[in-house]
Specification:
With 560 residues, this protein is α+β, with helices and mostly antiparallel strands. The chain has 13 helices and 21 strands. The radius of gyration is 31 Å and the shape is elongated. The termini are far apart.
Length: 560
Amino acid sequence: MNIAILFLALQLRAPLAASAQRPDTHAADSARDLSRAKYAQAAFERSRRALLPRGESGGGRCDVRLGRFCWWYDGGIPHFPPENSTIGVRRADLLSQLDSASTRQPGDDWLVGMRVHYRIDAKDFARADSAAQSCRASAWWCAALSGYAAHAEGDAGAADSAFAVAIATMPADAACQWKSIAPLLGDDRDAYEKLACDARAGVEQRYWMLSRPRLNGTPNEWRNEFNARRVITWLGERSTTPHLLSWGDDAAELVLRYGWPVAWSKIESFNSMSGSEPSVIGHDPSPSFPFAARVAFKDSLGAVSAGAWDFEEIRAESRFAPRAVRRVANMTAQFARFRRGDSSLVVAAFAARHDSLLSPTVSVGAVTLSDSVAVNASDTNRVGTGRVMIAGVAALVGVDVADTSTGTLLRARFAFAPQQDTATVGVSDLLVFRPTDEPASTVDSALAHAIPGDTATRNHPIGLFWETYGVAAEGTALELAVSVERVDHSWIRSTKQKLGLTPIDTPIRMKWSDARPSAGRSVSLDLTNLDTGRYRVTLTLSRESGSSASTAREIELIDP
């Protein structure tokens, strides 16, 4: 009897004990699955390292030193032999193990991240997207993985939307770190890092506006790339990389600034402690380009000229390789703004002369700090004009000439703060054109003969067109003054002038009165007596009441 009671008690207690142990068992199983998966991931990277093709070291070149890493840029498109088939087989085996573990532990962030990452590593973008869409881990992380997969597949719209959701749903402190562009900044970095998260927003908006690669209406692909690099750094911090080095701030900054390699190679190096030891070289996407403008991002938006972008700079703070782009270069263009109520009409005259252009398309566009984009197609493809209407806010305007057949992207850019519409007299930008027998009295008539850029030959007069604002419809007496002053005073020229070897640069000044009611006005200038060089042309309007307004533009005079 006592035995029977004891047996019954054990039967009653057994389910309770099993129930009490189930969470611990599940935790142990979860830890075991994750441990095995991480072991398999590390084993794959060790195997990959052993099978990498031989590469070149760069001959001791080091364009940028980041902690333990030396980075250099060769340009062009690297050529490597096809990936060793054994690597593909072992990657497939790793993915099978990751999928199996993720089935048992569907809520694990690392497992689903690896499933997406290694499918992208295998260039299996469709299955990478499927893995991201089936994600059941943290909501913000699933959104980030969807953005990562969409960006890898070339879907900029889906990537932008997914990354926006990820940032909006992640914890505030994580979002602050995620959005930080500190690694991408140069002289502004220290000041930026001292700002509170909310105070950084203005700097970040200005950076992404000025660094946008294309003004074609699609989302900012460079910002998408940076968010994808954030995903990679999250994974790299928790994984084994082909370098087989411990992760650190230097590794993270290397990825954030220059991207994740698309190919790997190795060279033999000698270590006194371990003897011959291969060094792994990561080959970033190439050709890549520095799209960040060389300006002080911490400042409020002022005029930013085309010279702020230098695509030949090797030691840039960051680089990005847009899809299907093999070469990027600046081109010549002239921009001018004209008020239209609360908005501005921006016109452009451009010239795209490049040997690689075969069948280019042209877009004239503008983007604001809030990432609102307006774009118009031009009816010409090499030399022509265009226009775009924007709201009365700070904006980056530009012309893009893109040739997909040759991978060429030619750009012209101009950034400015909005013009203030006041009750006093105001004036538009100057639009420089080649005068004809008919005087230019409208934007259209001046734009039809506008000079595409800031260079004019001395053998022809130049015309200046502008609009006046705050002038009564019946006309108001205005005093107008135009000055032309040389601005390229090199020390050699200054020395020659002091020695009397070169004439002193004397500004040209003209004044006259005008009471015409028309808002559009123009004047023709004969500059044939001036030497070649760079000049600033300034127009000043004054009322009898004392109020005044001025506008200026620089031009380069050259011999025909």
